[in-house]
Design the sequence.
């Protein structure tokens, strides 16, 4: 399995818009991608400008399917307008 953690910095005045856009992406991903085992957004309790998208995929094919999805492609430009900088994407191999 493959795990991905995407880290986002969002200005406080854009948090509501970010959460709405990301929420649509989470809902579409979970409803339409059987190779995705976990896809959820979390906000840091100590710093409300910090968010993490936690993702778990069966395999690389599931990651590729997600990246090629219409909802993922549509979210990119929308998210760009509410982020403070580029997201940090980390990919891991699940070992246990």
Sequence:
């Amino acid at each position: 399995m493959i795990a991905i953690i995407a880290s986002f910095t969002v200005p406080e005045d854009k948090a509501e818009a970010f959460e709405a856009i990301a929420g649509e992406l989470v809902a579409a991903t979970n409803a339409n991608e059987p190779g995705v085992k976990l896809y959820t957004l979390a906000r840091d309790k100590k710093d409300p400008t910090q968010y993490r998208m936690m993702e778990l995929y069966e395999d690389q094919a599931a990651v590729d399917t997600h990246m090629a999805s219409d909802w993922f492609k549509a979210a990119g430009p929308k998210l760009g307008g509410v982020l403070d900088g580029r997201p940090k994407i980390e990919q891991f191999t699940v070992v246990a």
